[in-house]
TrEMBL record:
Pfam families xref list: NAD_binding_10
Top-level lineage group: Bacteria
SUPFAM superfamilies recorded: NAD(P)-binding Rossmann-fold domains
Ranges of residues in domain NAD(P)-binding: 8-186
UniProt-annotated stretches for the region Disordered: 151-171
TM region(s), chain numbering: none
Protein name, as recorded: SDR family oxidoreductase
InterPro entries: NAD(P)-bd_dom, NAD(P)-bd_dom_sf
């Protein structure tokens, strides 16, 4: 049976995604710097590790990877470089070495062209852009998810992959992002594809192959 490694498992999206993947019958390993944060989720292989160090050992027996780690809004540019860029690139290298069959990465709206957005988070978008490009060029089968502004509502299960013209409508719930991740891994499709994700009016199953 294949096993999926979730990197960023204790983050907001990671904590939503783990139970969904488990309920979908997907065997899981979760990399966590603080394993105690996953104490309430049973039936997964919790691996202690730090993304700023070597974490290749976490890839053992895993043939799919979800990278949803992020430095967080409260950190500075140093963590953006070390987590959103460098740790992502290391994960891609480990995935290639271990012949991972599918690498799903959570990126960001605007990572396609950071110069197009006048925003104080441009360094973050540059880091995401470079990590995405590194994955694309690695040869590892990938799915890149670029959600809009993340919200904490319960989600609707309905999305659009077309960027709304109104910036105020360019948002999506973390719950729906987790549902998309689950859908991608359940189907095993959507390889070598990039999706932007926003709240919409179409069921996830009708948009994600």
């Amino acid at each position: 049976m294949s096993k999926t490694l979730v990197i960023g498992s204790t983050g907001n999206i990671g904590l939503l995604t783990l139970p969904m993947l488990k309920d979908a019958g997907i065997e899981l390993a979760a990399l966590a710097r603080s394993p105690d944060k996953l104490a309430g989720i049973s039936g997964i292989d919790v691996i202690e590790g730090d993304l700023e160090s070597d974490f290749e050992y976490a890839f053992k027996d895993c043939d799919r990877v979800v990278f949803t780690a992020g430095s967080g809004a409260s950190t500075g540019p140093d963590k953006t470089l070390l987590i959103d860029l460098w740790a992502a690139c290391k994960a891609v290298d480990y995935a290639r070495k271990h012949h991972v069959k599918h690498f799903v990465i959570v990126s960001s709206r605007g990572a396609d062209n950071p110069d197009a957005i006048d925003s104080p988070i441009k360094p973050y978008l540059v880091a995401k852009h470079m990590a995405d490009e590194y994955l694309i060029r690695s040869g590892v089968p990938y799915t890149i998810l670029r959600p809009g502004k993340l919200t904490d509502d319960g989600g609707t299960g309905q999305i659009t992959t077309r960027r709304p013209e109104n910036p105020d409508a360019q948002s999506i719930s973390r719950t729906d992002v987790a549902k998309v991740i689950t859908r991608v891994l359940q189907t095993g499709q959507s390889k070598n594809v990039t999706y932007e994700l926003y709240k919409g009016e179409t069921a996830i199953a009708d948009l994600i192959a």
